[in-house]
Amino acid sequence: MAFKTGHIGLNVTDLDRSKAFYGRVFGFTVLGESREDGRRYAFLGQDGTLVLTLWEQSRGAFATGLPGLHHLSFQVADLAAVRAAETVVKELGARVHHDGVVPHREGAASGGLFFEDPDGIRLEIFAPDAAGDRPAPSGSAPTCGFF
Question: pLDDT per residue over 119-128, tens digit each?
Fold first, then answer.
């Protein structure tokens, strides 16, 4: 059997706020949604392909100390695309880890931006060439560990 990731489903506290955030940062468009009270959700995608489903089914903030999702990672073509996302993320006032774009680990060519959505869900946007000559924030540990 061969597997390929289908789509991602996230619980959010405010569907409208999250739709706006993911639309601005990732350029996702709404492919379909329900506004029915108690059953609100939105299908978000690119070029007509479903990428992310947001479910308004939670309260509070993302609990990093509990088992479950660690972070979501999205690959883009190059450093310019990571920098463009960084500009939007900072304009939105999202929490950015490691002070911006950093390598995945010391000496790595790949790197990216590590940040949180409005509910505290940890996200990464990276590119194979995004590290440049910047030092890794966690030494030999993987930067995507959010250490």
Answer: 999 999 999 9
Any alpha helices (H) in 1-147, and if so which ranges? 15-26, 79-91
Beta strands in 76-129 (DSSP E): 96-103, 111-116, 122-127
The CA angle 11-91-63, to the nearest 5 degrees, is 30
Q: In the CATH hierarchy, which top-level class contains the domain 72-140?
A: alpha beta
For the stretch 126-135, pLDDT in tens is 999 988 777 8
Torsion of CA 41, 122, 94, 135, to 10 degrees: -150
Q: Single out the residue of 108, 110, 101 nearest to residue 83, CA to CA.
A: 101
| Domain chopping of the chain, boundaries | 8-56, 72-140
pTM over 0.70: yes
Q: Which fold has domain 8-56?
A: 2,3-Dihydroxybiphenyl 1,2-Dioxygenase; domain 1 (3.10.180)
Q: Identify any residues that bridge with 55 across adjacent strands, giving them in sequence order.
A: 11, 41
